[in-house]
Amino acid sequence: VEVRVGDKVPADMRLINLQTTTIRIEQSQLTGESQSVAKEPAPVTDEKCVIQSKTNMLFASTTVSNGACIGVVIATGMSTEIGIIQSAVKEAAEDEEQTPLQKKLDDFG
Fold first, then answer.
1. For the chain, how long is the longest CA-to-CA vector?
2. What is the pLDDT of residues 85-102, one digit of tens each?
3. According to the model, what pLDDT value does residue 12 have?
4. For 21-44, what is the mean pLDDT?
5. In this predicted model, which residue has the larger pLDDT, 107 or 17?
6. What separation in angstroms does the CA of 108 have from each of 34, 63, 96, 97, 98?
C-alpha cells in the first residue's frame, strides 16, 4: 500500500520502501506523542518493544505528515493496535459495576 502526505494509514503496515528521503507519521492519538515520528524501513529486533519503539511500523488511523512510502499490511480491523485498544476499552466498560442510582433505577423499572 502506498501512502503519502495527508493520507490516513488504512491498516497496520510494515514499512518496506521509502519513496522520499524521510517519512513522518502523526500518531498522537495512539501513543500520546506531541510531535510526528520519523519512520524507517530498518527492522526492529526487539519483539516485545512498545509501540513507540516500532520505528518500521505505520499504524491504522494515524496520518502521514511528511514524505511517502510503501508498506505491507500486517493487520486490519480489530487486529490493529488501535483495534486492540478499542477492545480493551469496551471490555473495561462491560466490567464496570452499576452505581447505586443505576441499581435503584433497574429495581424501579
1. 65
2. 999 888 877 777 778 888
3. 97
4. 93
5. 17
6. 48, 48, 21, 18, 14
User: What is the layout of strands, in order, in the sheet containing 63-66?
Assistant: 37-39, 23-26, 63-66
Cell 496520518 found at: 63
Residue 2 one-letter amino acid: E
Cell of residue 62, nine digits: 494515524
Radius of gyration of the chain (CA): 19
Other Cβ atoms less than 10 A from the Cβ of 79: the count is 13
Q: Judging by DSSP bridges, how do beta strands 37-39 and 23-26 pair with one another? A: antiparallel
What contacts 107, CB < 8 A, 6 or more positions away?
A: none
Q: Which residues pair with 61 in a beta bridge?
A: none
Residue of 107 and 25 predicted with greater confidence: 25
Query: How far is the C-alpha of 42 from the C-alpha of 20, rounded, in Å?
Result: 15
Burial class (CB in 10 A: 0-12, 13-18, 19+), 17: exposed
